[in-house]
Amino acid sequence: YKPKQSVTRRSADWVEVACGRKWEPFWCLVVKHFGLSAQPLAEMSLRYHNKVVIVTGGSKGIGRGIVRAFVENGAKVVFCARGGPAGEALEEELNSAGPGSCKFIKCDMSKEEEIKMLISVTVQLYGHIDCLVNNAGWHPPHKATDETTAEEFRELLNLNLISYFLASKIALPYLRQHQGNIINVSSLVGTIGQKDAAPYVATKGAIIAMTKAMAVDESRCNVRVNCISPGNVMTPLWEELAAQTPDAAEAIRVGENAQLMGRMGTEAECGLAALYLAADATFCTGIDLLLSGGAELNYGFKSQILS
């Protein structure tokens, strides 16, 4: 097919061809010229078409960005959260837009029986699992180590770390059948530390270590296990923590300035990182993908700790 006036331009997703003033994806022109069905070619552009994905803590923030990225790329997503309204609203929104689909399940990831239910419902619906994204967790208000109780630490470990272990353990028999993958969402602070957040940092550092250990074990079954460590990402939780400070606007400004790129990350960028690890990074296992805008670079300053 050779139009009279033809130039091309590249976008992030496809090469487009201009016929006169009308720009169209190249595959659309092929479809028109050869009389092919557009549906199979459209599906080829979806990076995780018909794959089954579980996302924990998927109704808000980073989890919401991950659910959205997978649905927009053709996946069948089961996602959970403790709160119902936000999850139900996201389910309705994404199912109406497609091209993938999603199912929301109300689930408390600190309870083993509910984790078992989540995995069981997914297998009953779709017969298998291709990808598990462990994301559910919480960042408690900042508090000095000597002001934190052992019980508070145990509760945080149960939600932030043990839930990841249990969900992985229960899902692994199904992931092994399809050589699937696990993505654990940790945090940059699991590597570099954070002021007045020792229990939280401990849970996130442990997630990174567990990711590497599981990657070693599951290489026997060709199940990849990887990790994402975001820096500051503007989410409802970040806004909530900022609101607890004397000056929320200043807290957000400082949070933005922590990255060399001068801004916070977005939910969408987190979603694309997870999609990359699941769909494209097929020779990567045991890695910790920093999504930090360069926050770990340059020098730290004593004044930041004393303030």
UniProtKB/TrEMBL annotation:
PROSITE patterns: ADH_SHORT. It comes from the Eukaryota. One of its GO terms (cellular component) is cytosol. One of its GO terms (biological process) is steroid catabolic process. GO terms for molecular function: estradiol 17-beta-dehydrogenase [NAD(P)+] activity. Signal peptide: none annotated. Gene3D superfamilies: NAD(P)-binding Rossmann-like Domain. Keywords: Oxidoreductase. SUPFAM superfamilies: NAD(P)-binding Rossmann-fold domains. The keyword Oxidoreductase applies. It holds the Pfam family adh_short. PANTHER family: 17-BETA-HYDROXYSTEROID DEHYDROGENASE 14-RELATED, SHORT-CHAIN DEHYDROGENASE/REDUCTASE. Belongs to the short-chain dehydrogenases/reductases (SDR) family. This is Hydroxysteroid (17-beta) dehydrogenase 14.
